[in-house]
Amino acid sequence: MLLKLPPPPPTTTAATHKWRFGYGSNLGLKTLREKKNLSVDRYHVGIIKGYELYFMPGLNEYVEPAWAAIRPSPDAELHGSAFLIPNADADGLDRQEGGYNVVDVEFTTYDGEVINVGLYVPKKPYVEGSSSEAIPSYRYLKLLKDGAREGGLAQHWLDMLDSVEHYITPPHIREKTLQLIAEFHSDDTRKDELWSAEKLAQHDGSDPDNFPTCTSIMQYVVQINKEKWIFGSWKGHNITRRNLCQFQGKSLDTNDIRYDGPGYRPLPKLCECSEDEREYLMQSLEGQLHRGGKIVAQLEPFLADQS
Questions:
Q1: Buried-state track 163-200, b at ≥16 Cβ within 10 A, e below 16
Q2: Which tens digits make up the pLDDT trace of 173-207?
Q3: Is the pTM of this model over 0.70?
Q4: Cα–Cα distance between 33 and 31 in angstroms, integer?
Q5: Are 213 and 221 in contact (CB under 8 A)?
Q6: Cα-flanking dihedrals φ and ψ of residue 213, to 5°?
């Protein structure tokens, strides 16, 4: 059954709203509304001709190795969702999708309605023979598959998504991760170091000379390799809750809580996380350790909240 929203009220016009097309993380209506906090007035599923889906390398090869991308292909069809949102929401989404250009194209719903929409096309075009492809994370691929089923995309598109492999941490990477953790626990200069949330917050990147930038994943405080970029929201912060919200498709802005905000404690209990959630947290830790980060302490409030 196709998911679509009825026409908006007469006050919704081209001057106040814009159409955008989702084929990756912007595909599902639930995600658009609940995770991205967009006010969706209309929603249709259908196709755009002349483009095909692939997965390009993401920001971190250890936890989110790939994002959805598209490339021109004359005989291909791209299946996804068209959604109408207020201009302010569209502008915000465009900024969020900073690695893509918005290109005006023709979209056709499965019911035959034709709509001009803004399509996110990677700024770095795909070049046959030199551009790389990558394997998406379990979380990201599940987001696409859930959105496609929610919207009622064509069965052959669902089958195609089901056939895509997801990233699994290679054994040698996990072995090295466990070795780095073991080295921390056997290092007399580090193993007993316990940080408070207040101390972690001092390492938010605002004074890196005196307080090297750190983040915290599960119980571990990791000093970030200063040559590597990380999200500003990760700095000086335990990101376990944030990672879990990301995995669960919840709004990060609404549900993530910094140490001085109400509801910060208790921190998530690992024993209450699913196996897939714990694996995502471990991959997040790997994403820092294998890019030059170093465990420097454990976070006392996280340890305390596990009991």
A1: eeeebeeeeebeeebeebeeebeeeeebeeeebebebb
A2: 999 999 999 999 999 999 999 999 999 999 999 99
A3: yes
A4: 5
A5: no
A6: -60, 130
